[in-house]
Amino acid sequence: MVNGERLSFDDGLALYRSPDILAVGWLANYVREQMHGDTTYFNVNRHINPTNVCVAACRLCAFGRKKDAPGAYTMALEEAWASAASGYTEAVTEFHIVGGLHPDLPLEYFLDLVAGLKERFVQVHIKAFTMVEVSFLAKRAKLSIRETLEKLKAAGVDSLPGGGAEIFADRVRHIICDHKIDGGEWLETARTAHQIGLRSNATMLYGHVESDEDRVDHMLRLRELQDETGGFQTFIPLAFHPANTALDHLATTTGLEDIRQIAVGRLLLDNFGHIKSYWQMVTPKMAQISLRFGADDIDGTVIEEKIYHDAGATTPQGMRRADLIRLITEAGRVPFERDTLYRAVMRSEDSFTIAV
Ligand code: V47
């Protein structure tokens, strides 16, 4: 490990089962510091969720609604463009756009949404649509995954977020997200995105009905694809929030489980540049501690979060740039404002430039 050797499936299991969390954390921190020193990444971003209408009805989800159900919404394009500009005055460098699988919205809606954002916010990077959404849009438009991704890219999508991966094992998917694409299709969509020059992230939803074996299998499948394409930027473990979901009988994750997951991710995914501890999911306090257990990124300002807050998250919906800097600095690390592609952002008041 310390000599750079690649870890095996059994090594992954041993890391989950070791009673010595400080040793596991020490190793992950060692790797993190070899890669990034004290540098810790964050960005100034805004989430946009154009619709919560979804045909999938995943048990893990508290966000999706049937079309006519109370609370269902779909933004008109003008509304989505206006929402992009609302919130904080600090200029955002990224729009993170994900939503439900709407039965009626055509691919053109999403192409127009993205093109309209690019027109209005020329400098802002658009990280949009999970592999699950791309696959759904392709089927609806009767296009291949590649054609769909090419159209989205031409409209202005710059990269893809990491959602929808959940846990790749079929047994688990049948329980938590029965109607979603399977693990193989998720990986194949990511492969195609990387092949046409779109980078993406990768997530793993943990803390529900999965086993340690399922988690290790998930990460090793990501590692294998990364060996092939090099297109993943960041791995983001997402802690399951059970409230208001069909799995609300399950307990939430504990602090040590969250910390260990970050550390095991850092150690197994030796070919991933970054491990993100998403403060919305694990709380700002845990995200801060995770900066000593393998994480080098805490995500961004977010501004408005719906998916975990519908599932009972008690974290703030957004944080200011200064709050993120404080979390990082007080962990003894050096804050680095990045754009989505990890380039330095130079900022003055309400404008920014990116080092290329
Ligand atoms: O795929 C849904 C998860 C994901 C719940 O790429 C839930 O930079 C917990 O992928 N409890 C979407 N999790 C969010 C996502 C993401 C977030 C931040 C940054 C990036 C990135 C990606 O949220 C879904 C699913 O795994 N999710 N419901 C829930 N009840």
Overview of this structure, please?
The strands form 4 sheets. Strands 5-6-7-8 form a 4-stranded parallel beta sheet. Strands 9-1-10 form a 3-stranded parallel beta sheet, with helices on one face. It has a 3-stranded parallel beta sheet with strand order 2-3-4, with helices on one face. It is built from 13 helices and 12 strands. The two termini are 33 Å apart. Helix 5 (131-141) packs across helix 8 (183-195). 40% of the residues lie in helices and 15% in strands. The model has no long low-confidence stretch (mean pLDDT 95). With 356 residues, the chain is an alpha/beta fold. It has helices at residues 9-17, 21-36, 77-85, 107-120, 131-141, 145-155, 170-176, 183-195, 212-229, 255-268, 279-282, 284-290, 321-330, and strands at 39-43, 45-48, 94-97, 125-128, 159-160, 199-206, 232-239, 274-275, 297-300, 334-337, 345-348, 351-354. The structure holds ligand V47. The site of ligand V47 has 22 residues, from strand 6 and strand 7. Residues 60-62, 98, 161-164, 166, 201, 203, 205, 236, 238, 240-241, 245, 278, 299, 307-308, 311 line the site of ligand V47.
Low-confidence stretches: none
Approximate helicity band: 40-55%
* Terminus-to-terminus distance: 33 Å
Order of helices and strands: HHEEHEHEHHEHHEHEHEHHEHEEE
Radius of gyration: 19 Å
